[in-house]
Sequence to fold (66 residues):
Amino acid sequence: MPEGYCVKCKAKKEIVDAVEEVMKNGRKAIKGKCPTCGTVMFKILGGKAATTTPSATPPSVKTTPE
Fold:
């Protein structure tokens, strides 16, 4: 179980119902709840998330005779 800091309890605790998410800037984070008070806990993880790259071949362009 991931561990994070609860700002309401002011203590480090295990994150309950943890879900890994990707933030807008591409970084990974874990979001869950505090086991004691139920406040949302959020922990930013190091590194960027793996992104899928589109294929290297360009799309075919169809030309119509004018």
Summary: The chain has a mean pLDDT of 85. The two ends are 65 Å apart (CA to CA). Residues 3-45 form one domain.
